[in-house]
């Protein structure tokens, strides 16, 4: 059952393997070009494990020391993780010793796969979550390491491969919309985020959209008297 | 920046990132009863987040439109079309990406 679960998880992460290796290598290369040796991208990938923030911090490391602005910037950019964790509270409940690892590795892609995959009966839920989390972590860290080590040796010819990640999110969203009976939540998320992006710009739109969504869902919860669950 | 300053900078980013992931689990530990609204939020939110992630992926293309944005939108529509038609995740992802890479590299 363990090997079956692993191969099932592995197949689900294949698009992410493609996207993360490519983006990870790009990130390693980027830090190399900024003048940092391979330990920087590798260690930052291992400890932060959040792609967009790593790119931002790489750039900030070349500027003046300002730890609090780094802290708040990372908090804003990664605020969406709070939503992933709230959504996974119940699913990760019985995960035992795996739980800290699952939470530590809860990135966009891992959340999408672990939330959206419908598991057959012969697949162990907790191990599936763990394998997806660890595989995605490995792809990203290994990519960053490769990019950092080989630096200028690798000539990235695969212009545009990063679209794999966008396509993955599109497919998972389309799946969700096709599967659900009520489009209230997906429509709310899509439209609020779109509006907030144009009104507030790309740094701050995530926390603001999330705040508005919580208010909308709370109003909905009050109106239905909290009976929906 | 000196090395200790670099370490502190990265540590701040790690701290903020970990905070965003661990906070809900710390606020609502599994041995306690999670408030009903939070449980319902956990059920209501995911479709909204998945929609938000699509916008998040397109944030730069939408805010700073170029010919690349048009390609990205077309490739996205191809991905949607393929998926509604065949419901095959790998096919939709590779098909959309292939369209994107093709146009990006010939233009």
TrEMBL record, chain A:
Stretches that traverse the bilayer: 12-32, 38-61, 68-89, 137-154, 161-178, 190-219
Biological process terms in GO annotation: L-valine transmembrane transport
Keywords, alphabetical: Cell membrane, Membrane, Transmembrane, Transmembrane helix, Transport
Pfam families named among the record's database cross-references: AzlC
Topology in membrane: Multi-pass membrane protein
Localization in the cell: Cell membrane
Name the UniProt record assigns to this protein: Branched-chain amino acid transporter
Homology family: Belongs to the AzlC family.
InterPro entries: Brnchd-chn_aa_trnsp_permease
Main location, first listed in the record: membrane
Gene Ontology cellular component terms for the protein in this record: plasma membrane
Provenance organism: Weissella minor
TrEMBL record, chain B:
Top-level taxon of origin: Bacteria
TM regions (residue ranges): 6-28, 37-56, 62-82, 89-106
InterPro entries: Brnchd-chn_aa_trnsp_AzlD
Keyword Hydrolase: no
Keywords: Membrane, Transmembrane, Transmembrane helix
Protein name per UniProt: Branched-chain amino acid transporter AzlD
Organism (species): Weissella minor
Nucleotide-binding in keyword set: no
């Amino acid at each position: 059952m363990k090997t079956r679960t692993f191969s099932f998880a592995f197949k689900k992460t294949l698009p992410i393997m493609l996207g993360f290796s490519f983006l990870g290598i790009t990130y390693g290369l980027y830090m190399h070009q900024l003048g940092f040796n391979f330990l920087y991208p590798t260690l930052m990938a291992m400890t932060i494990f959040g792609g967009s923030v790593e790119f931002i911090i790489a750039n900030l490391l070349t500027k003046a020391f300002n730890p609090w602005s780094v802290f708040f910037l990372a908090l804003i950019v990664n605020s969406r993780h709070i939503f992933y964790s709230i959504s996974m509270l119940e699913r990760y409940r019985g995960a035992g010793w795996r739980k800290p690892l699952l939470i530590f590795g809860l990135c966009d892609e891992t959340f999408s796969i672990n939330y959206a995959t419908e598991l057959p009966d012969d697949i162990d839920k907790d191990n599936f979550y763990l394998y997806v989390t660890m595989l995605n972590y490995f792809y990203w860290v290994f990519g960053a390491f490769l990019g950092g080590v080989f630096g200028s040796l690798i000539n990235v010819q695969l212009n545009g491969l990063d679209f794999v990640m966008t396509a993955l999110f599109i497919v998972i969203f389309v799946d969700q919309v096709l599967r659900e009976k009520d489009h209230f939540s997906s429509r709310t998320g899509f439209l609020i985020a779109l509006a907030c992006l144009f009104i507030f710009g790309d740094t701050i739109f995530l926390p603001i959209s999330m705040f508005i969504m919580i208010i909308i869902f709370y109003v909905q919860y009050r109106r239905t008297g909290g009976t929906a669950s | 920046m000196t090395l200790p300053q670099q370490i502190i900078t990265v540590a701040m980013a790690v701290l903020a990132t970990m905070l965003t992931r661990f906070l809900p689990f710390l606020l609502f530990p599994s041995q306690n009863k999670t408030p009903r609204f939070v449980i319902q939020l956990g059920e209501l939110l995911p479709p909204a987040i998945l929609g938000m992630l699509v916008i998040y992926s397109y944030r730069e293309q939408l805010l700073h439109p170029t010919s690349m944005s048009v390609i990205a939108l077309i490739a996205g529509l191809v991905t949607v079309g393929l998926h509604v038609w065949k419901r095959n995740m790998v096919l939709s992802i590779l098909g959309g990406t292939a369209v994107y890479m093709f146009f990006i590299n010939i233009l």
